[in-house]
Every structure is written in structure tokens, then in C-alpha cells.
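Subject: two folds for Thursday's group meeting

Dear M.,

Sorry for the delay on this. The cluster queue was jammed most of the week, so I only got both jobs back this morning. I'm pasting them in the order they finished. Each block is the input sequence followed by the predicted C-alpha cells. Could you check whether the formatting survives your parser before we put anything on slides? The first protein is the one we discussed after the seminar.
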Amino acid sequence: MRATVIHGPSDIRIEEVPEPVVQRPTDAVVRVVNACICGSDLWAYRGVAARQAGQRIGHEFIGVVESVGSEVRDFRPGDFVVAPFVWSDGTCDFCRGGLQTSCPHGGFWGEIGSDGGQGEAVRVPYADGTLVALPKETMGEEKLLPAMLALSDVMSTGHHAAVSADVRPGDTVAVVGDGAVGLCGVLAARRLGADRIIAFGRHEARTAIARTFGATDVIAERGEAAVAELKELTGGQGAHAVLEAVGTEEAMRTAISIARDGGAVGYVGVPHGGSAGVDIGQMFGRNVSLRGGVAPARAYIPELLKDVLSGALDPGPVFDRTTDLAGVPEGYRAMESRSALKVRIIP
């Protein structure tokens, strides 16, 4: 079968790899219907995150169960499923507590020795603890597929930022980052009842989506100018909740600075550049809280899926380009140049 592999910075290839098979009784093999390229994949593409030459890549996919191990109880061949970006056993203390990303038996798609999501099929460890069933009748509904695919990572991650920042009805929320996660953070804040949502971004196509998703204001400035503009918009107080969806020092510094006294920052941007953006003194003096990390998508997907199926939630517009596997290398180039927001893959 064909799958996406990375051989070095800016070197993404589509290659023939062995077909996945059930290796353990708890495994399932899923034939991919949709996958996508994530903004976090770009760190490897840029050479910032280390990868071995020939390593698989991609961690977001929906598909159809093709085969299952003898101990898989919840799924059968033909079932339509979404896979969160981390697999987990579903039985440990962390999984039972809703923090599947800390499962001691868990892992990330594309790790050495595992399949990546950007391919024709994937072996899924701990299928019962990892996969979430999708209604079979939605398999052919093109309008729903992008929204359900977004649940595998970006929508769940945006929701995690909002939950971590304790977004409440009536709040003023600021979202730092205009990538797919930041835009989904706007959606999540609106879903949780935020009264005002201030999105940071200067790319017009992305800020247009932000407004469609519920942003009431847009700030195109960066650094101190951005902080000053948000303070002006909020009467000098700042935002009750700030969602940080970038992962850089500048973004974190901005996020902490624009939170109002007693407010909170929910951070989900994959950290790059160390922790210099975290000013503990400022946080202490102003009672600003900081929470976040790797989103436990498996815990969030069931509740978010209900809203997707009802039509109350649609993160699908974050996908602004669709390609087959052959077009994946160009998809990476497009996202790196910011000419594409998020690329959906139909193998």
C-alpha cells in the first residue's frame, strides 16, 4: 500500500510500504477514508522536530475497520470510525480519568514502528480504547466528513484550550493563533457561551473563517502593539480567557499579557522556543492561571460528535484544500507557505 514518509526537512514522499496486519489481539486495521496534514507536522517538515529518514507521518484519520484481533469487542469489520491522534488502552487510571494522552501503553501515530495516518490503512493498537464509532450512514455524506475528521485533532485541541482556560458563558475570550487549532478554539469558545471572542491574525482568508466561527473582533498586530490593542478593546482589563494555539515564545508572552487579572491561559500550541515566554512574576502578581498541554481528544470526541451530527458544530471549513496521496508533498509545501490552511487527504 502507499503511505507518506518523511526523509528529512522539506522531503516528504509517497512510498510503497507493507500492508498493516493485526499483530496483537487488541489491534484493528482501519482502511483510511480521509486523513489530513496538521500544523504540527510542519515542525518535522521544517527540521525543527527530529525524525528518522523513512519514518511514517500523519496522525489524523477516519476510516472503515477492515479486520480486528480476537480480543476486540466493540468493533467489527465494516464499522466507520474516527481515531484520535493518540492511541490508548482505555483501561488505565489515566484513561478512566479522561487523560488518555498520559496512558502508559499509548502512543502517537507515526512514531517509529507505528503507522502514520497519511496512508491507505493503519494498524490501530488497543482498538477498543482508542477508536470512536461514527454512524455508518454518514460515510457517504461529503459535508460531514471534514467535520468528523477535524474531531481527530484540531477541533478537540481547540476545545481543550477553551476548557483549560475555563471559558464560561458571557466571557471575553482572546485566541492567539490563526491556524486550524486557533480557529477551532474560536468555535469552542462560542460553543461554551463566550460573549466576545477576539481573534489574533493577519491572514484575511483565515480571519474571515474566524468571523464565521464566531469571532467578534480581529487583531492583526503582534507583540506589544497587539497587547495594547486588546487592552483598548477591553477597557484596559484584558480577556477572561486566552487560548494560545501557536507554541512560540512570542505567542505565550502575548497570551499571558492579555489575560485579565484573575484570568486564565489555555495553551495547546506545541512548544518551540523554550519557556522564556512564561513570566511567572507577572502571573503571580496578577493571579493569572496557566493550564493546557496535549489534548485528550479521545475524551472529547463523543460529546463534540453529538454537536457535529446535530449540525450545531461544523469545524469542516478549516479544510481549504483537498488532495489525493500523490498530492501530499505539494500539500506540505502549500501549508508551509501559508497558501493553504489545512489540507484534507482522500487516499
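Second protein, same layout:
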Amino acid sequence: MQNAVIHSNGMYVPERVVSNKYFDELLGENVSDWLEEFVEIYERRWCAENESTADLAAAAARQAMQRGNVKPEEVDLLIISTDTPEFISPSTSSKVQHMLGLKHAGTFDINTACAGFVTGLDIGAKYIRADEQYQTVLVIGAYAMSKYINKLDKKTANLFADGAGAFILKAENDSARGMQASRLITHGQYHDYMGIFAGGTHQPVTKEVIDQGDHLLKIAKKFPPEINPETWSAIARELSSKTETPLNEYAQFFLTQININSIRETMDRLELPREIAQTSMHYYGYTGSACIPLAFEDALQAGKIKRGDSLMFIGSGGGLAFAGASFIY
């Protein structure tokens, strides 16, 4: 039986750096102290005016392909996770396939908001495990939320940012490496708590909608503060049990980077050292579908992971969707 291994990875963040001082000046009050003390975000990256989700995705993919010595014609499937798509229709992945010259690759987009990258890993790995025609799968998480934020909204403007991360999954026969287990969970009762609620069929964009700002990202209701640590720790325990790998044998945990305190609480619930959960929001801000592959790159560059390590990926996003996957790297 063939399994899906993480062959190579890549990332990209825009050149434009937006510091906390930008928001101090924009809002006419000191928000830097709160951001740095309680959220530990010091700066973030935003797209240039002429830069879009497809540009971010393609740049991350190019790095992953170069590092893995993967030629465009070798990619069998491209999966892009994003909730800031290039268009309502067609898919972002169709444009990125053309940009990269992936002439043999089938494509599709998925949207489970910020849980999307891990969902994409789950889907891509299962394509490889189920069908031998899929030998090389490119999974990208891309996020250009700066295009959808109200810069005067203190709840969102200083947290959300842009970037993309890519993994190339390759088939490997009878391998001890690769995906070991996964889990998807959705709590749909929270679907109207946070999102970009206009632009689809429920609420098409009109002048009135634009005047009200409903075409931009909104946090409409407050999520229960315990929901991420509670669900993340439950997924971690379930995947540990499925793989028969004790939690303390995982080298790193990669969790959605929206709240550093939720990450720390999760590790405390699991009775594990906080430092084995990589945190990378400090200089990237919150990058949605891209945040987990960005954190992976940071850990890789810091020498925190090596081939043969057990790794846990757990994402969550509006919906409320959760995805977990356990891999041996």
C-alpha cells in the first residue's frame, strides 16, 4: 500500500510589512501595547495592491517544487485551501495551475476557512492512498484577508494578514513515514459567528451591503473562549490513540495561530511542554489557511523537526470547522 509523505514544503509572505505603530496612528490610540503583551503580534505582512491570493499560492508552490526537485508536469493534483478566493467562480486552483504550468494536474479549491490546510492534507493523502494514478499532490493554504478587512475595526484589522504555504505530498510504497491518522469535526451552530457574509447567494453584494460593510470580515458573535483548546486537545488525544503514539513522543504540534494563549492552554491540557507547539504569529500576524505551513517552515528552519519525527497538525476556522492530521515526517 502506498502512503503520502511530506516530500517538500514552501512558503511566501508579501514584502509589505505593517507594524503595530501603523494602527496606533490609524486609530489614534495605543493598540501596540495590548497586541504585544496579550497577543504577541509585533508586525504582519499585507499584499500589495496588485497582489492576490493566486500570486501568494504560486510563490509558495514554486519554492516547494524547487526544494523538492519536482517538475510542473509531475504534479498530478493541486488542492488549494482558501476563504479569500481569487474569484467567486472559477476556482483559484485553476488559475494557479496555469501560472505554474501544471499541465497534468487536476485541481479544486476547498473552503473550511482556517482549518482548510489540514483538511487539504487529509484529502491529498487519501487520494494518494486510494488511487495509484496520484503520485504527487500539491496542497496550498493561501490567505489574503487584508483585502477584506475594515481597517478601523479593532477586532480584526490588527490581527489578520496575508501569506501562503505549500506541501508536496508524494506516494511512497510500504513506508513507515507519511500520514498516520486524521480527524474532521464541524460545529455548524457557529456558522454565523465570524466570516465574510456578503458576496454569495445568501446576500449578494449591493450598494447597501457595501455601505454597511457586510462585504468585509466581521466577528458577529464571540466564540466560547474554551472551544479551541477543548477541541484541539480532544483531537490530539484521539489521533495519539489511533496511531498508538504517546503524546509525549510527538516532536512538534502545529496549531492554528489565531491566539497564542489558546495554543498554550492546549499544551497545558495535554500536560506537554509549551515549546513543542510552534508559534509563528509574532511577525506574520494571523494568516488563516497559511498559518500552519508557515509555522512548519519556522520550526524546520530552527532545527526543531527532522525526518522520522511524529508531527501533529490541528487547524480550526470559521464554520466552525476543525481538522487534525498525524504524520511521520
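Two things I noticed about the second structure. Residues 81 and 116 are 5 Å apart (CA to CA). The domain at 179-328 is CATH 3.40.47.10 (Peroxisomal Thiolase; Chain A, domain 1).

Cheers,
T.
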